[in-house]
Amino acid sequence: MIKVNTLPTTQWRIAENNILISDQLMRELGINSIISKILTSRDISNADDAKRYLGPSLKDIHNPFLMKDMRAGVHRLIKAIYSGEKIAIYGDYDADGITSVVVLLKFLREINTDVSYYIPDRIEEGYGLHCGAIDKIKADGVTVIVTVDCGISDREQIDYAKSLGIDVIILDHHEVPTILPDAVAVINPHRSDCRFPFKHLAAVGIAFNFLISLRGSLRQDGYWSGKNTPI
Question: Which of 149, 157, 185, 205 could form a disulfide with 129 if both were Cys (CB 3.0 to 4.6 A apart)?
């Protein structure tokens, strides 16, 4: 007889907070009681805040330029775009890294930038930036690498890239080491000198904020000049 392995049954328990506020949100917004309880558990206690949470817009987010090194990173990438340099997006192999790569790659390809990507093999290469991968990227003529969901701890590898004439922009959310890598920009909300209010973004959230900054800066420069701005 074949034994079939089954996953254990999960029973979710939703924290009971202020029942009156939860009921009020449910009535005013016409939402399910479970959703209203989740909102109150996240300290959302009025309809306006709940609407912003459930239907956010760009005007509701923090200024991305509050992130330390955001301007430096955006400036370097704009320089690469205008001068036609080859750019490589280097991301981790997990869900956060892959989605970060896709977000950046999609936008940059929409504006006809010469951009490629590299995701290391989980088994053969492992986590982080690798000198062997940098050699492959260099052979492709790349002069700018944007790391996403990795890079903050790869000082030696970034020094190696720099020795080959490659500038590195780091978009990461992992623990910040005592000594930062010598990159063009190290964008990580966990930096002690970073004024960005929300510290718990995933890497794809940092990539998103980076693109908002890049898109806005290019628009101000008149890069599209009458053309439709990529979303």
Answer: 157
